[in-house]
Amino acid sequence: MNLHPRLPRRHLITAVLGLSAALFGPAVHAQATPAAPVQAVASFSVLADMVRQVGGERVAVQALIGPGADAHVFQPAPSHARMVGQAHIVFANGLGFEGWLQRLLETAGYKGKPVLLSQGIEPLRAARRERGHDHDHGHAHGDADPHAWQSVPNAIAYVANIAKGLCAVDAAGCPVYRQNAATYTAELRALDAEIRAAWAGVPAAQRKIITSHAAYGYYAQAYGVQFLAAQGVSTDSEPSARGVAQLVRQIRKENIQALFVENIANPRLVEQIGRETGIRPAGQLLSDSLTPPNGRAPSYVAMMRANTQAMIGAIQGR
């Protein structure tokens, strides 16, 4: 039941989180020297997995947005304020992906600065059709596409930023973090080479994929793949009828067959495109979220490998 029907959503969230902070007491801040394990919070599941790879047993990691959940429509709850309030360190993507984060940090009483894992990465511009869209959930990208983790070279930069952040709050564990980061980086370099080798057998003219929203710009740039989407970089944006019609015409003209739904997105838009083009969706891609542990992509490495295999399989008719 909505007790405040006229209160704007962003104010209601702030009020609820404020009550949470009062109930949960004082926060543990990033300036404090943590006892092992370090309490870390990551904004969503992809980042949480990366932090676990670098932190190892010295770090206990929690994700604000768990596997299978859509970060584009996330609204912090009192439990999230408590989680942040008890953290020694908070990791976020940056590039406008977590437009709600600063308000949550303030409400939780967190005095440190979040570690932005996209720091140092040159952002791509967001899909033009989303510019000027007013995000109701505080998920404001501006002109930047925030999905930088979709490129494995960018993920390697994320790993370096994670190690640096953990060393800042746990100097004693820094040799462990650096070694873990080096091991994980080697795994990511091998993954990057694997993805490039897989695409090498697909002619450039055939590398065209249709998805729900424009989450794969960095993958496209890194691996020479063209992605088409009716929505912009957020699932919270509304595709226009004109945009969908243009996409349908392009699909028919270029005979594009690789049509995918996403694990976080409502499939209705892709299903509509499938009906209008006569193309059956080839399966599901993962964009902003991992699967639960028993799923096909419980880690970042598994996600990138699964997406690549699915896309190439759809193009080649497997």
Question: Keywords for this structure?
Answer:
318 residues; Rossmann fold; four-stranded parallel sheet; two-stranded antiparallel ribbon; 12% strand; globular
Q: Can you describe this structure?
A:
The chain is of the alpha/beta class. It has 2 domains: 181 residues, 3-Layer(aba) Sandwich (Rossmann fold); 114 residues, Nitrogenase molybdenum iron protein domain (Rossmann fold), CATH 3.40.50. Helices cover 42% and strands 12% of the residues. The chain has 10 helices and 10 strands. The strands form 4 sheets. A 4-stranded parallel beta sheet has the order 2-1-3-4, sandwiched between helices. Strands 5-6 form a two-stranded antiparallel sheet. Helix 4 links the parallel strand 3 and strand 4. The longest helix is centred in the middle third of the chain and has 27 residues. The termini are far apart. The N terminus is likely disordered.
Summed up:
The protein is α/β, with parallel strands linked by helices. It has helices at 9-24, 45-55, 78-85, 101-108, 152-169, 174-200, 217-223, 241-254, 268-277, 300-315; strands spanning 38-44, 59-65, 89-92, 115-116, 124-125, 144-145, 208-211, 226-229, 260-262, 283-285.
